[in-house]
Write a structure and sequence with these properties.
The protein is of the alpha/beta class. Helix content is 20%, strand content 23%.
Length: 342
Amino acid sequence: MQFIDQSVIEVEAGKGGDGIVAFRREKYVPAGGPSGGNGGRGGSVIFVAVENLQTLLDFRYNHLFKAENGARGGPNNCTGAGGKDLIVEVPCGTAIYDASTGALLGDLVEPGKPFLVAEGGKGGLGNQHFLSNRNRAPEYSLPGLPGEMKVLRLELKLLAEVGIIGLPNAGKSTLISSLSAARPKIADYPFTTLIPNLGVVRKPSGDGTVFADIPGLIAGAAHGAGLGHDFLRHIERTRVLLHLIDATSEDVVGDYNTIKQELQAYGRGLAQRPQILALNKIDAVDQELVDLAALATQLHHLSQAPVFIISAVTRNGLEPMLQEIWQILDEINVVEQAEMIG
């Protein structure tokens, strides 16, 4: 399945049905009054977030979503049938923008909650609506109003509590495959991961926490270089960033600073997000030549964040790192609950 996380579509709500001109024709009633019914309301376009979708692939080839028009009114004061609403399912985490203004219209995070995107037009009034003492036989009605039309830009931002970031080949895919049942493509060349991967990691309590493996960032990613610009949006919703650093790199500190600068350049509060650093691939390091403890201390002073020495391949050091992640998430939950009560 292709991972599509952006799409531009057009939505059009249904037109309201026209009102009609009609008069009663009843036996023994020499001059029947007006009886033209109102037109039915046009159908609306409604988006609903669902959990069984993970991509915007359905919107790649279908760009027009149109709801049903309302039916015209009928005689005997009968109102026309309303147009059927068009329900469009999108993945949880889909943000809806006005394509012309860039304004955020809605952010669909909660599954099952409907969001009105385009409202159907009102039905026109039939001539029975215009009956008055001055006009006993109105011979006019009103047409239905057109439904709303909008051009929308859809952006999917993955819903994950922990985002795994780092330069290409830092071992992000290997780590998420070690922590969860996810099986991303893994190879020894840069940019193996071309799409974000999600994995559910179980807490000791049994609850599942979603981790997202974000494709490798490079210098300039926040301004469009490499793959990072396309996928940085997927860590906007994360609560904790797990920054993976290749311990076999010739410039470990430089690698850390590269990612730090990209987070700052991208903005949206990513640089201020709680962060954990992990020196990975210690199984491939000649520890007689590389002082891992000194590197960890240096990174801690630079980041003021916890630093762990791990191997995603051998799973060495993963448990203490996970315990730190669970503790940070618990603290965030406590703060959020206190804010809700306050």
